[in-house]
Amino acid sequence: MKLVVDVQGFKIENNKFIVKEFAAFNGSQVCHYVFKPPFPLRMLPSDLHKQATWLMNNHHAIDWNNGYTPLHHFGSIFQKLIKDIDCIYVKGMEKANYIKKFSTVPVYEIDEQPAFELGEPLCFYHKNNKCICALSNVYFLYNKYMMQN
Ligand SMILES: [Zn+2]
């Protein structure tokens, strides 16, 4: 079984990515989590703080403080999720590399371009009517790339 995955998040120091929103879709079942921040936003250095504010206002539009699931649960959530999965598809190299760190099955990269367009989110966590939603993205990617064969 194939699984399409998307993550939206923030950058912290040392170019490290942290997940805010995670979604996965295998054609029939869907998984969606929004993770708690690992530390208060004010602890980010000013350049990364600016970038985070931009993402919150213009991109995924999920507040830094949103979410209920502790971030350190991501690995175990992911392991359970891929139990019966043969391979994973992720859009973009950076996200694919991130998912590879947690995956025991092959991770295939879907070309980064064309980038996702802002659209109506499918979940309640976004403050903008037009934004990037990981849940919307996995349905979009599955329909676009997995339905072809
Ligand atoms: Zn969403």
Report on the architecture of this protein.
This protein is α/β, with parallel strands linked by helices and 149 residues long. It has a single domain, classed as Nucleotidyltransferase, domain 5. The chain is 28% helix and 23% strand. It contains four helices and five strands, in the order E-E-E-H-H-E-H-E-H. The chain has helices spanning 46-58, 74-81, 93-100, 134-146, and strands spanning 2-12, 16-25, 30-34, 87-91, 107-110. A five-stranded mixed sheet has the order 3-2-1-4-5, with helices on both faces. It is globular and about 45 Å long.
Structural class: alpha/beta
Helix content: 25-40%
- The number of helical segments is 4
**In sequence order, what are the helices and strands, one letter per element?**
EEEHHEHEH
Radius of gyration: 15 Å
Q: How many separate domains? A: 1
Bound molecules: zinc ion
**CATH architecture call:** 2-Layer Sandwich
Low-confidence stretches: none
Q: What name does the CATH topology carry?
A: Nucleotidyltransferase, domain 5
Strand content: 15-25%
The strand line-up of the biggest sheet is 3-2-1-4-5
Number of strands: 5
Distance between the termini: 13 Å
Global mean pLDDT: 96
